[in-house]
Records
---
Amino acid sequence: SNEEKQPLILAGKTVTITAGPTREALDPVRFISNHSSGKMGYALANAALQLGAKVNLISGPVSIQPPSNAKLFHVESALEMHQSALKLATESDIFIGCAAVADYRSADLQTQKIKKQGDEMTLTLVKNPDIIADVAGLSHSRPFTVGFAAETQNVADYARKKLINKKLDMICANDVSNQAIGFNSDHNALTVFWSNGQQDLGLHSKEALSLSIMNLISSRLKG
Ligand code: CTP
Ligand code: CA
């Protein structure tokens, strides 16, 4: 169980984890975001702590309690998360991008509240930086880099494409077309992919899956 004593296989290692959604402001009172609860990222942080690691947790706005022994970095936007992640990545052995980063932000952040006008309005968005791709692309002090992929179809294909395109060491994929699991659930079903292998971790609590993922990372790190 979650309380069980684990062998300290990550002692001496620093793990940095991004978690939760990002929030992209439109004006002082409005934003674009998503339904990420942060539960998976926070569970990974707990698992890494249980295995003896030092943990940096970069978190978007969530409503759950952080693990007390993690070093917490609160961020809101993808740009803030990007800056925090790149700063911490070079001093990390392992980087896990579990956050649901908003792909786009407003092209034109308003400093005053946007006033209602005509019957239609158009928002122009610009692409956010790809945080995990930038971490995996570091030329010095690059950590072992693990991503997540939430897909509604062709899960294995899309996950392997992300593994290759973002130059990740590992990617954890889940099928979010299954309404019972994922985003706000306490459970998840994951398949983990790496360059020359894969492992189906099945449907479990996010706590149990997190221990499996951290164990898998630890063994790939050595191998
Ligand atoms: N990610 C990131 N920075 C972004 C977008 C995504 O670091 N700007 C990370 C996520 O934290 C996750 C991985 O990339 O670890 C995959 O995220 P996902 O949204 O599935 O992939 P995208 O590359 O954004 O592609 P798409 O949303 O079109 O499927
Ligand atoms: Ca995305």
---
Amino acid sequence: SPQFVPNNELISYRKQHLGKSLSLQYKVPIKMVRGDGVWLIDQQGKKYLDTVNNVAHVGHEHSAVVKAGQEQMALLNTNSRYLHENINELAQELIETLPPELNVLHFVNSGSEANELAIRMVKATTGQRDIIASEIGYHGNSNMCIDISSYKFDGKGGSGAPEHTHIFPLPDAFRGKYRGDDAGEQYAAEVQKCIDTIHQKERGVGALIVEPIISCGGQVELPQGFLEKAYERVRNAGGLCISDEVQVGCGRVGKTFWGFQLHNVTPDIVTIGKPLGNGHPIAAVACTQEVADAFANGMEYFNTFGGNPVSCAIATAVLRTVKREKLQENALEVGEYLKTELQQLAQEFPIIGDVRGQGLFLGFELVDSEMNPLADQTSYLANRMKEHGILMSTDGPDHNVLKIKPPIVFSKENAQDLITYLQKILKEDFMKTH
Ligand code: PMP
């Protein structure tokens, strides 16, 4: 068996020589050595059920995806200035899933790069640079992406919204600013306020960027009617609408292939990341002919790695696997089953204040009887689940949301195991607050 470097040595080397703001998951960090479907396997051979990784979309190390990458890597990898079938085939696979208006693709290497490019397209198309985004939204790690990510600039180490960013309140109908039946309209009116602010400054609207389910905000589903009304207002003001599908795209939400399709809207730009390469760095921007034409203003767009034959072979294999294995249908079926089971658990344990999400992009929130967030219990639950071999992640502005976004090969049996252990740990003394 291979000689492993002890974890304490890996940790001390990291602390000294790797980025100082990188974080490690869990109080006692784990080292994974292998992935297999919904499982991650650590150096002792212990298997963990992965309910976190929406990057390993069709399952960790899916054989069809690995094979596609290996075969193309053995043959050729170059930039996209040469003709190649793979980039066209991948574009075609994506176009088949999108509304007819969204039929031009640019390939990049990460979700951040996709959103970065989307904002450049907005500037080229509208001539404006004012962006409207959600509170606690996250759109990536580059300069521009941080500038539109309230999750970062309103958090530790941040210094608030830049001049050209306009934030509307997290459209959370459970504990947010508006909670009633009219929440969709009320949050859309907040978007209008951002538009009015931009106009008062004698500038125009560039774009609205929103995730169809706000992930870092705590798996927040957009209230009924919100997106439709917000898009309408932004468009009336001459702005574009971007759907950030980096987390939720490619079949995960079950009912539809893309998150925006849960609502009655068609964006001008869609950004696609994480799941597209099943772990390999490839991302994409889909846009209309009009946006693509405006962006092609004479300056070449060159991206060394974006759209290379290896990445495209991998992403095409991912999309074909989703189709072949009917994984969108699986996300719907298993997701609805799991959501119902979680709702039943919420009946039994009132500490679960809200269960939400679509398909295999779910979340539940822990609160006390006065709706106060319970961050300690949330962290305890995630750490105890890990001890039982189940990986979960936590998020939300108050760190009290458990997120469930596993590879979409997640089965009913996996869901049952998850529920069994949640039930066991929810009974523990630390979880008793009522
Ligand atoms: N958009 C959203 C919604 C994301 O969650 C992320 C990453 N968590 C990004 C963009 C940035 O993607 P990447 O980390 O691949 O640059």
---
Amino acid sequence: MIATEAPAVLDSWRGLPAAQQPGWPDPGALREAVAWLSVAAPLVTAEETDRLTALLGRAARGEAFVLQGGDCAERFDHVTPERVGGKLVTLSRMAAVLEAAAGVPVVRVGRIAGQFAKPRSAPAETRDGVSLPSYRGDVVNGAEFTAEARTPDPWRMVRAHRASAATLELVRPAGVHTSHEALLLEYESALTRRRAGGWYDTSAHLLWIGERTRDPDGAHVEFASRIANPVAVKLGPTASVREVLELAERLNPWRVPGRLSFIARMGADRVREALPPLVRAVAAGGVPVVWLCDPMHGNTVTAPSGHKTRLVARVLEEVAGFFEVHRAAGARPGGLHLELTGDDVTECVGGAVSARDLPLRYESACDPRLNRDQSLEVAAYGAGLLRD
Ligand code: PEP
Ligand code: MN
């Protein structure tokens, strides 16, 4: 029933280079938490997961458009009907706007009910001469700048499972699929279960691999290659044609439409030059792929106030570039991947939010999110491009 039945499948990532894993200080506690997760209730079913693969398959053929969005990092103490409901309403409104323009169904996928692990550029953070481990998401440690909070605690993986289950109760009636970055391999492999169609990571419907962990020979790609879920990979401007073709071959060897999505996050300045060779090579290689545009992560800047922010104008510019590249290649863009919230935050600059407003309601535990109005602005802009 559980992992121990076929360790060769679920543990094949062990021993390969695994970037961005926390240094768990207590191996005994790690073993116990993983044992708890190995018999925990699955969060999603294989049937739901297969249904999403089929919907993404339609997107791969240009017969559907994908909207994936939610927090950069979810927080345990934000699992409330108001906050989760706000995200779901925002996603639904955006989907309605896009669907009216696209003339095809919009597949809604939340960065939700499990988006608790964060890759970090620096392993440590220094404030006033004090250096502590970086915050790696609520599933690993606490955001508070104290030695106690920042010490990785494996029991947080159990709390993440509970928080995901509570969030899912709110998400299911809205018909939104769930997704998160498959970063923490102990968590993901402990929640993987054997079903008729293969091994399913039951932590979410779709799992993606981040820009920092997409080494084709690394542990994350190996793990993702073994699960039956739809998977995605983020691609930044340094991704080479060779790497991308290798990822396509490793992650979709049977060429199943909907199994693999690539999420381009090139930056508004780079997308028009960096993306076309990749799109052309993948099309020539014959592996079906859904191309999504993440116009957030290549456009992060630091405001004079010190806040990490993004300009909505640059976000729109990358979306425009992404559409242009696909049109020039004779392909339909597959969808959008956004960091957003339903809350009235001041984290990105644009619309009613100026750079001076950033300190007012900057609540993100990690990257800056579009607020509700800004999210709708991006959806309306995308709708305009879909109509052209
Ligand atoms: C993210 O999606 O929050 C993220 C860290 O993205 P990337 O891996 O593209 O940098
Ligand atoms: Mn982010």
---
Amino acid sequence: MTVARTARDFQVAHLTHRPPIALAVVIPTFNERDNVAPLLEALENALEGRVWEAIFVDDASTDGTPERIEALAAWRGHVRLIRRIGRRGLSSAIVEGMLATVAPVVAVIDADMQHDEAALPALHDAIARDGADIAIGTRYAGAGSTGDWAESRVAASRLATRLARVAVRAEVSDPLSGFFAIRRDLLIATAPQLSNVGFKILLDLLASMPAGPRIAEVPYRFRCRHAGTSKLDSAVASEYLLLLADKTIGRVVPPRLILFLLVGGLGLMLHLLLLSALLRAGLAFATGQAIAGIAAITLAYTLDNAFTYRDRRRKGARWWRGLLRFTAACAIGLIANVGLAATLYRLEPVWWLAGIAGAAMGAVWTTAATSLLIRRN
Ligand code: GDD
Ligand code: MN
């Protein structure tokens, strides 16, 4: 896209003496305080001679990362910081950073120095000079490699990569790479179709954009993390599956519905098993239904807690307090559940039928309580 230049544009360019920005490098951060200075220095060396800007996107790090970035930016014109408050998610952070620039080419790089910044000029040139739409840093082609990864991590990454090929039609060796560059106008055209969930923005982009993008690959060797710890955890893994589901069957069944049915099914199984055991032990139906209902509520709480970001997970006393609060929020649902089940059981003494009817009533309430009480991104 070219815009006609007016005499005033030339006048402005002359006054500021600044050539237009050619490349924006987006750097997502969550607790990366000791990495941002060495990274910035490495980027400045690697991109020497280009007109570029760094855009950090921080999700309210608690270790002083944004303050460190501000100190670095204070005497550099080409460093910007976007602070997101009360939000989490690598993919959405990257997209917000990418949409905050006017540079024609946008790249992403991790803050922990695992990606080799020396490959950035090649990624940029592949688009700006050679006409690619996307240029991907790859660990799985040519001289690329995963470096010193543990065997289990290599296996997990290979499995995830194989799964990704179901969603992506394009031939790419490393669709899960977090190190790539893209033409900004293609990003803008694709943004409305993105799922925006989880860690894997490149996969999301490849699966959402019009068919037939021109793709370039630049091999690099994955390095070890410089400082700090990885944010990869069970929440990230489950969000990956959610992204894959959204990109494959998402047009037919919303993945959140699948998740609801999965958790609901597990809860119902636990409920019925426990209820039958309690009835066999001689408890009254209503008492058994109430105990089984509380067990199912505890399971919903436990599962939800296990699949939130590690740093937000409740442990010890906070876990118990959270469970109490959650159970209290579900109390009306539990009363409705037991009331309905006991009435049905009196009319028609089929324990599992009455049990399921009550549990379904309780599940609707538990879901509402979950979405009200538990904060999402
Ligand atoms: N803003 C923001 N919000 N940044 C985040 C968040 C978040 O919720 N979670 C992680 N980050 C930042 C980290 O601070 C780091 O700069 C980068 O995203 C990658 O996070 P790591 O915790 O280092 O993840 P990883 O090393 O397991 O995964 C990376 O490597 C993969 C290659 O296997 C990611 O870059 C993947 O995208 C990449 O594919
Ligand atoms: Mn990392």
